[in-house]
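Data card: per-record layout.
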Amino acid sequence: MKIQNLNDPRKVAHVELSVVILCYKAGARAYDFTSKVMKMLDMFVPSWEMVLVGNFWEGTNDPTPEVVKDIASKRDNIKYVAVPKKGMMGWDARSGLEMASGEYICLIDGDEQMPHRDIVRVYRRIKREHLDFVKTYRLVRHDGLFRILISFFYNVIFFVLFPGILYRDVNSKPKIFKQEAYERMRLESDDWFLDAEIMIQVRRLKFKVASIPSKFYKCNYRNSFVGFCTIFEFIRNLLRARIREFFV
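The structure for this 248-residue chain is written out next.
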């Protein structure tokens, strides 16, 4: 099964907000989350598009590619990308971000751990205060002690290596940026380091930034994708990124 990028030429002249939703292994559950997002955007955003990312590993029976294709067929302002994966979360996110044409671009996971209502909250904040970038931080978490401890130590290491960033919780989403801010960041990460790379670029480019509190829920239909190997991957990438800072 190979489902390629869909760029529907039927779209509004100006897109105010692009919402990129990472639907990896979401399957039929993507219907419910995207439906909630669509209803909310129709109410609060004058013009919007949605980009669904349903990339998959070849040889698996993941139904997600067909699901995102079906969702996109229902509305003119919904796009999707569903191609064989060549990387992890970062690769998926960049494949969706590259399709976004909105004045503002919002990135969120589609597993409902992050409330869909936060999309409008970060959108309103970035517009109201004329900012470059806005993110959430998880003030309340329901995803278990193991994940909370991993996140705590990861953030401590991050802020030690990259002082000057005053905004907590590197990996929290949704994240929203102006289109021109996204283009200036020139993101490269193919793995879980993408969130940290975004914050490093925000710091380097001296963007105008804000953050808002959020709740984070447990995913009840699958285990976390973050394990011990991911921790070492995070630390290795942080050290590598810090060394690169000396040559920028």
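Known properties of this structure: The chain has a mean pLDDT of 88. Residues 228-245 form the longest helix (18 residues).

See the next section for split statistics.
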